[in-house]
Amino acid sequence: MIAQLRFLLQLTHGHRIARRYFVTNGFDGALTMLGLTTGFYSAGQVATSVVISACLGGAIALTVSGLSSAYVSESAEREKELKELEQAVAADLQNTAHGQAARWVPILIASVNGLAPLLIALFIMLPLWLSQAGIALPLTALECSMVLAFVALFLLGAFLGTVSGRFWLWSGLRTLVVAALTAAVILAFGA
Amino acid sequence: MPAIKRVVLDVLKPHQPNALEFAMAIADRHGGCRITVTVSEIDEKTETTVTTIESEDVPYAAIVETIRELGASVHSIDEVEVSSMAPADAR
Q: Do A88 and B68 touch (CB under 8 A)?
């Protein structure tokens, strides 16, 4: 099954699209969580349960948005490509590997696009849950979440660096700068 | 019953899978076969290939079905070698 899915992804270059969506939507998820946690930090004296609800709501919205938008757009693109290919080979390709790819690859890509922000958001929210469970943290729950957001954004940048052949540290630092600017603007507005 | 030893097909295939993946997919599904794929023409969406399949007894119908499942189509049988010689006679 996995070998077949890998074959279908290779057929349509879907693995490249999935990688791109993972980074793009992962970035969205991480920056959104950074924005929310920084905003609450700036506001001060907000109950952890309120922060968790708001962050979870944002994460779920990003997931549903990612799943639905990617599925609709990728399905349309695959269908168009399949029709063009059917014209070129003058045959019905519905029951071929290309037909299977047109049906399954949008689902795979949509899953990556939807799950990327969710998983990253849950990672960033970990300190909030740990704090609510009474586990002691080195900083406040919000500060820890903000640190994890920075870590997530650095790792996404480093990953992009390895993909593009650039030095991973510089790529990671670049996305870290974006994260720092975002946090700075939010704190400035909240001050 | 005669056995198909070698068959050369004119196959029109999409660019993906490429010639290597195409040959590997056929060989993977049909053990005991030797597959040669030569790309003779390329256009925007497809490539024309000369696909040679050799075996002790080429499972022709199954191979044509595999070619179809990979999104390709057999346009013609260009060459075929069939043998009804017993193995002892072949030597």
A: no
Helix axes B60-69, B19-29, angle to 10 degrees: 140
Q: Kindly list the residues from chain B whose CB atom is less than 8 angstroms away from the CB atom of residue A14.
A: none
In tens, the pLDDT along B56-65 reads: 999 999 999 9
pTM: 0.82
User: In this structure, are residues B58 and B5 in contact, taking their beta carbons and an 8 Å threshold?
Assistant: yes
Sketch the domain layout of chain A as residue ranges. 2-190
Judged by CB atoms closer than 8 Å, whether chains meet at B69 and A88 is answered as no
Strand ordering across the sheet containing B3-14: B34-42, B46-54, B3-14, B73-83
Residues 1-30 of A with CB under 8 A from B: 7, 10-13
All structural domains of chain B = 3-84 (3.30.70.1340)
Of the residues B48, B49, B70, the best mutation for testing chain A's interface (the one with the most A CB atoms within 10 Å of its CB) is B70
> Which residue of chain A comes nearest to B15, CA vs CA?
A11
- C-alpha to C-alpha distance for A72 and A25, rounded to whole angstroms: 16
Rounded Cα distance between B55 and B20, Å, is 19
Quote the CA–CA distance of A63 and A3 in Å, as a whole number: 27
Print pLDDT tens along chain A (191 aa). Answer: 888 888 888 888 888 888 989 999 999 999 999 999 999 999 888 899 999 999 999 999 999 999 999 999 999 999 999 999 999 988 899 999 999 999 999 999 999 999 999 999 999 999 999 999 999 999 999 999 999 999 999 999 999 888 888 899 999 999 999 999 999 999 998 76
